[in-house]
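It would be a great kindness if you could assist me with a short task in structural biology. Thank you for your consideration; the sequence and its tokens are set out here.
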Amino acid sequence: MSLDQLLAWTPPGSPDETMARQVNFEQLPAHIAIIMDGNGRWAAQRHLPRVEGHRAGIDSVRDVVETSARLGIGVLTLYAFSVENWKRPWTEVNTLMTLLKRYLRLELATLHENNIRFRVIGRQDELAPDVRDELDVGIRQTANNTGLLFNIALNYGGRAEIVDAAKRLIAAGVNPDDLDERRFGEFLYTAGQPDPDLLIRTSGEMRVSNFLLWQIAYAEIWVTETLWPDFRRRHLLEAVLAYQKRDRRYGGIKPSPVVVG
């Protein structure tokens, strides 16, 4: 993607345009992961049922996915439903699954238009058959797209992923002497994908909530007080600009400048 393609979708003279022009397209995060938090609080502030916050959050998903595609981000992973979320009231869980199916039906054409490939990470076999069918349609119909890889983390847990990877590794008969971090990564849900460079969390909470625990080892973390239903293109651009100002050392020490004379 290019600046022109991003600006074509940005209101002229807006703060979004100003931020878009500041983006260094040579220094984009290869993978952005987002913990979408604050739907319930958004609804509570408006004296609405919690499910209305989830409905409002769909617009944020749409905006962030399309912005990521136009920016030229390689991978975007959204944390939609955790293994712990089954503890929520049945009506809320049912609404979340219904909204997911509706999003896929309505947005499939847009995913194609933006050359976006859709995938799911998590324990899909524990989902209801109708949900799995809808997910399979989206995965199959976008499989040949070559732009943004859009992961939805659904029935996902970071610890569960590591356990599942260990089970697959044992089933594959991998010799422990041949095991290293690279080899182990081949058994994760995200095998073949770059680890997240940037982890975004909305609603101001300072925790990672069992999300991509292996993969975010060296991710830059950016937290905003903005609740997920209010999160839009400008917030994503703000996060990318903040990321581009970071000095990433991966545990090393930046060498001191050599003074001559």
